[in-house]
Amino acid sequence: MYSCFIFPGQGTQKVGMAASFVHGFKSGIEVMEEIEDAISFKLSKLIDEGPIEELTKTENAQPAIFAVSLICATILEKEYGYNITKNCKYLAGHSLGEYSALCVAGVLSISDTAKLVRIRGELMAKSFDNDAAYSMVAIIGVAAPEIEDLVKPYQSGRNVCVIANDNSLSQVVISGDRQTVKLVAEKAKDRGATNFIELNTSGPFHSPLMAQAAIKLDAFLAENIKFSDFKIPVIMNVTAKPLNNKQLVHNYLIRQMTGRIRWRETIDFIKEDPEIQNIIEIAPGKVLSSMIKRSDPNANVMNLETVAQIEEFIKTES
Asked: What is the pLDDT of residue 18?
């Protein structure tokens, strides 16, 4: 039997997150130092002390979350002897978390991933001069099929509104032009939507409006990044299917910038595999594991964001 590790995306950041990982283990300190050297930025100080407003900026949040996720995975292996390659059948990550998964899978080096998520965050944050013109809204209480035809007329042009994240049977995130997003959200009430949450983002992520940022990321990848072979397949966001071919990674990462995060389908794929015994969310936070539990209370899922949780997990695996 196997596990599947899943890695969170932007929005899970908080001041002091996983401080015991970052400072409590030699391997954790070494990973943080490598990441800080790669991006020439004192990330650990920002994670430790904040302020939260600075940590939440897209260009800071993305490398910070990646750092905490990677440190947790590294400590599992180097300090507790857990063999991720042997014990995990797949890895997956939500948006930014896909980069963490690719790094743990051996496809990206630590320093390359750090540079990538830093530049990705900068491109996403600085793509739009007028943030107020765009919006991302989580629609609660409905599934993607209920929203699909509402956004169908707005797939291109000035008044774009698309499904950015198909998160679960009860949560869909739409993204695009603010007025069009608001219009679609209002119509979603007739489809059973019970609540709406406007996300604190710096742009209409995972929509066609991110095309220019995708072009710039494409150029950065082509000029600076070398992909290695997969140690473990990664279930990719844009297909919800496992990938084991390093030649396709570049294309998939570019498609992810403008494409839908198919997270509901990803989790369904994992749960339908009889060889996967449990789903483990790697720090920080428990957004993904909580989402799975809400959809399926019987799912064997847990999150690891404290040393105590890691030690309990290792006991169950031994």
From this structure: 84
- Residue 292 half-sphere exposure toward CB, CA atoms < 13 A: 24
In the annotation, is 318 catalytic?
A: no
Give helix 110-125 / helix 26-39 axis angle, nearest 10°: 50
CATH class of 2-126+210-317: alpha beta
- Supply the CATH classification number for the domain 131-201: 3.30.70.250
Question: How confident is the model over 135-167, as pLDDT tens digits?
Answer: 999 999 999 999 999 999 999 888 999 999 999
Active-site pick, 3, 44, 95, 207: 95
Domain coordinates in residue numbering, the chain: 2-126+210-317, 131-201
What is the model's pTM? 0.97
- The letter for the amino acid at 286 is K
Q: Tell me which of 100, 206, 207, 289 is the catalytic residue.
A: 206
CA separation for the pair 48, 19 (Å, rounded): 7
Share of the chain above pLDDT 90, in %: 92
Does residue 95 carry a catalytic annotation? Answer: yes
- pLDDT greater than 90 at residue 127: no
Q: Can you give the pLDDT at residue 131?
A: 67
